Amino acid sequence: MPVKDYYQAIRFINESLPQGSKVLFIGEPRRYYCEKKVLTSSELDTEVICRLVKKSKDINQLIQRLKGLKITHILYNKHGLIWLNKQFNCLHWENKAQKSCYEAFICSLFPVYVSDDVYIFQIP
Fold first, then answer.
1. Is 38 helix (H, G, I), strand (E, B) or coil?
2. What are phi and psi of 38, to 5 degrees?
3. In whole angstroms, what is the distance from residue 29 CA to residue 42 CA?
4. CA nearest 79: which of 39, 28, 40?
5. Cα–Cα distance for residue pair 59/20, rounded to 1 Å
6. Rounded Cα distance, 121 and 90, in Å
7. Where exactly are the structural domains of the chain?
8. Is the Cβ–Cβ distance between 94 and 54 less than 8 Å?
9. What is the side-by-side order of every strand in the sheet holding 111-115?
């Protein structure tokens, strides 16, 4: 993600999301300047979302797990995730069902913010 897209997304989070919001970063390890609570992985870790999908039998259970962690929003950096996965293989799917669950979950979300391939989704 170009640097300006990161700063614009963080500005939106800081200025537009309610107090008490907690944001899961997917494909984005940089948490600096974010004034909300953040859950993210380093570039050398498996993505948090990957671990959650593996523990979930379907999208509904995945959403419940996110809510259990008090996640209210997701910052999704599509290009960042592609790059991180190429460099560090951060999405370790054990089978096609897990990958399909993840892809269906991402596609089911409605963005509250979009800048190029950076999205902020609200958890339903």
1. strand
2. -130, 140
3. 5
4. 28
5. 24
6. 21
7. 3-122
8. yes
9. 37-39, 22-26, 73-77, 118-122, 111-115
DSSP reduced 3-state for 82 = helix
Contact 46, 98 (CB under 8 A): no
Identify whether the C-beta of residue 39 lies closer than 8 Å to the C-beta of residue 123.
no
For the chain, what is the total number of helices (H) and then of strands (E)? 5, 5
User: pLDDT of 44-98, one tens digit each?
Assistant: 777 899 999 999 999 999 999 999 999 999 999 999 899 888 988 888 899 999 9
Task: Assign a CATH topology to domain 3-122.
Answer: Rossmann fold (3.40.50)
Is-above-0.90 flag for pTM? Answer: yes
Integer-rounded Cα radius of gyration of the chain: 14
Whole-angstrom Cα distance, residue 118 to residue 54? 24
> Which tokens sit at 92?
């370790």
